[in-house]
Amino acid sequence: VGGAELLQFAIAGLKNGAIYALVALGFSLVYASTGVINFAQGEFYMLGGMVAVWCMRALGLPLILAVPAAVAVTVGVGALVERLALRPRRSEPALVLIIITVGVSMVLQSLARHLFGPDEMALPAFTAGPSVPFLGAAIERQTLWVWGLTALALLGLWLLYSKTKLGLAMRATAVSHDASRLCGVDTARVVMITFALAAALGALAGVAVAPLTQTAYDVGARIGLKGFAAAIVGGLGGPVAAVVGGLVLGLVESMSVAFISSTYKDAIALIVLLGVLFLRPGGLLGRSDREKV
Amino acid sequence: MARRWTALAATAVITAALALTGCTGTPGGGGGAAKEPYRIGVVVSLTGTYAGLGVPERNAIELEVERANDAGGIDGHPIMVFFEDDATDPAKAQAATTRLIEQVKVVAIIGATGTGQTMGMRGDIDRAGIPQVSMAGGNAVTAQFDPLVFQTPWPNRIVVPFTLSYLKKQGVTKVALLSDSGGYGKDGRQVVLDGVAKAGVTIVADETFNPGDTDMSAQLTKIKAAKPQAVWMWAAGKEGAIIAKNLQQIDAGGSMRLIGTPGNGRKEFVEGAGDSAEGFTFPAGRILLPESYGTDTEAYKVATDFIARYTAKYSKAPDIFAGHAYDAITIVIDALKRADAEPDDGTLGGTGAVKLRGPIETTKGLVGVGGTFTYSATDHNGLTEKDLVMYRVESGAWKLAE
Predict the structure, then answer these.
(1) What angle do CA A27, A28, A34 make, to 5 degrees?
(2) From the candidates A11, A120, A131, which should be mutated to test the interface with B, based on the most B CB atoms within 10 A?
(3) Contacts of B332 (CB under 8 A, 6+ apart)
(4) Which pLDDT score, from 0 to 100, does residue B227 have?
(5) Mean pLDDT over all residues of chain B?
(6) Is the overall model pTM greater than 0.90, yes or no?
(7) Residue B37's pLDDT band (cuts 50, 70, 90)
(8) CB B241 to CB A1 under 8 A?
(9) Which among B169, B168, B232, B182 is positioned nearest to B204, based on CA atoms?
(10) What tens digit of pLDDT does each residue of B257-279 get?
């Protein structure tokens, strides 16, 4: 394998990795504030792409308006999911809530199939044009957008967490709901905002990827699984951990195509996931201390 | 609290009931006299990877059954068709088959959309002794011969030699394979590997991807290093457009041509791939450009009539998959017309089925949209390389390739 090819493999890995990272960010945000793995996260990704396509086809909006509209609609859906499906059962154990999110994902997927149909749909690239040559390799323009948006999301989350009062409330809620409430934090509102934020991140990923891969009503389940794996590899910690987890997973996949076999790409990624869990149960960047029983 | 649980339970029961009634029949229209309807089961992929193929198939079957019933059914017997969604899952296709046989008591089953699903149904088909007409293009469907199983698309043993002779004419001798690891790609890959030596073509790279994968640029990077003249992809789902785009990214100079299969004959592929589909070449039946039948032929009349009626009802032109379904239901209806109208004595699994296998096997010179079907005791596909043409995408539309 030559240098330019190795670079091309790395680009492919980092491209997929950045997508996994955006979805993983949604998982870890919701997990931090509620202790729940939100299995509807992949459907937010699906909704982002599908709503954007629908806005362009049915409403005739230009791309530049369709993208924010899709994110906004998905944010609304995310907030509604929290308010209507999860909050009424807030006092139940996390397992019950997780199963509710599985149900929500099925409902969202079925609705999308009925509303938008079963066919795959394409979204135009954000900036048209040929791939950008880079040291003998080539990078699609849309990939640059995916990377840019991931970096922007990471920066935005960092600012939110460290510079704003809402971020402080979110961090406090992550530590303890009861203690936060005693300090006057409206935890129910914080949890709803967290869901809306996770939905925004998922939708952003879905819109950014649709020009590369097309989108369809059923893309959520698969990307949800990958994003979940990335979040676990990263350690379900802060935003940086999720992004590292995503990039590592993407690179492992593309390198296993390069050096082992494309057939076993997904199996190899799964083995890496298991390996991480065996050696570092807290994830790559997670705390390695275990809960004492 | 208790009341809320009751409400929840009630909702669950209603949802389950709705799901069960998903298996509903389309009763015959102008049946007139109260003659026993013929029940036909259809297993298609309405969800999952092949949803884009299964939905036009269902549309075409609904259209044709409606037409047959409006014309008075078959000797006064209306046709009832029962659709089942296999969700692109062989296990669900098998379960649907059991349901159609045991509960609905169908006389024949059309389906499935995919090769893996079609093969998954075989055990139940054999046990019940009723005929199956598959719309899947996998070689195995009729190559692993079963007297009860018929097939309407061009199987890979016809598609592959046709494509290989085209490649040779074009001077392409070094080819890379990129196939999906599901039934269709696996089947096609094997037929290609068995046939290349005879055709004087070398496979210089052999990569796969999994159904649902969203990026194949790693595989294509590896393929590029092997310097093939063409990449031959086996992808019937939305992965095809991704491969076209990835190839354009990796190979900006255009040193590798992209070759496909009949599975790529969908509008969604050309739309999804955009300008990366330019120059893409694939073999398929003549339905995509009906003029290629020759405008004075019966096939042209059959196809244009079908296209017009389908477009009028669904405001969308039929693709090749709708064509496969048209052929399947037309073959079954034609066989029903020639079958004994009386139900049999129940020796075939006790379903009270009419004896339909024999009449399907004696289908002769039936002009469909995928070709002219003549089945025999040894050939349950009935098509030849003559029913295929090469298409090339130019300015976002299909043209006949040289």
Answers:
(1) 90
(2) A120
(3) B40, B108, B110, B133, B356, B360
(4) 93
(5) 85
(6) no
(7) confident
(8) no
(9) B232
(10) 999 999 898 888 998 888 899 99
Please, is B7 exposed, middle or buried when counting C-beta atoms within 10 Å of its C-beta (0-12, 13-18, 19+)? exposed
Number of A/B CB contacts below 8 angstroms equals 110
Give Cα A11 distance to the centre of its chain. 19
Over the range A118-139, which residues count as b (16 or more CB within 10 Å of their CB) and which as e?
bbbbbbebbeeeebeeeeebbb
Residues 88-147 on B with a CB inside 8 Å of A are none
pLDDT band per the 50, 70, 90 thresholds, residue B12? low
Residue in B with minimal Cα distance to A206: B214
pLDDT of residue B22: 43
Q: What residues form DSSP beta bridges with A215? A: A121
List of residues 6+ apart from B242 with CB closer than 8 A: A212, A213, A214, B213, B214, B215, B216, B272
B112 preceded by a cis bond (ω within 30 of 0)? yes
Contact check, Cβ <8 Å, A130/B221? no
Low-confidence stretches of chain A (pLDDT beneath 50): 290-293
Residue B217 distance to chain A (closest CA, Å): 6
Cα–Cα distance measured from residue A49 to residue A215, given in angstroms and rounded to the nearest whole number: 6
| Cβ(B332)–Cβ(B356) below 8 Å | yes
Contact B214 A15 (CB under 8 A): no
How would DSSP label each residue in B55-76? Answer: HHHHHHHHHHHHHHHHTTTBTT
pLDDT digits (tens, 9 = 90+) for B244-254: 999 998 888 88
CB contact under 8 Å between B181 and A263, yes or no, is yes
Q: What residues of B are in contact with residue A139 (Cβ under 8 Å)? A: 249
Of A13, A124, A214, the CB nearest to B238: A214
Q: Are B366 and B144 in contact (CB under 8 A)?
A: no
**Interatomic CA distance for residues A42 and A229, integer angstroms:** 12
Mean pLDDT of B115-134: 91
Report the distance separating Cα B18 and Cα B25, nearest Å.
14
Measured distance CA(B329)–CA(B308) in Å, rounded = 18
Distance, CA of B180 to CA of A65 (rounded, Å): 36
How far apart are the C-alpha atoms of A100 and A80, rounded to whole Å?
A: 13
Worst-scoring range by mean pLDDT, A138-147, B26-35, B167-176?
Answer: B26-35
Query: By the CB < 8 Å criterion, does B264 face chain A?
Result: no
pLDDT for res B343: 52
Q: Are B283 and B254 in contact (CB under 8 A)?
A: no
Statement: residue B19 has pLDDT above 50: no
Higher pLDDT, A172 or B22: A172
Looking at chain B, the whole-number percentage of residues with pLDDT higher than 90 is 48
Q: Calculate how close chain B gets to A219, using CA atoms only, in Å.
A: 8
CB-based contact A131 B248, cutoff 8 Å? yes
Residues B341-367: pLDDT tens digits? 555 444 433 344 557 888 898 899 999
Average pLDDT over residues B102-119: 90
| Residue A236 one-letter amino acid | L
According to the model, what pLDDT value does residue B7 have? 54
Across the interface, do B272 and A120 touch by the CB < 8 Å criterion?
Answer: yes
| Contact check, Cβ <8 Å, B268/A222 | no
**How many Cα neighbours within 13 Å face the side chain of B203?**
19
| Size of chain B in residues | 402
- Residue type for position B176: A
DSSP A209-264: HHHHH-B-TTSHHHHHHHHHHHHHHHTS-SHHHHHHHHHHHHHHHHHHHHHT-STT
Q: What is the pLDDT, as a whole number, of residue B355? A: 77
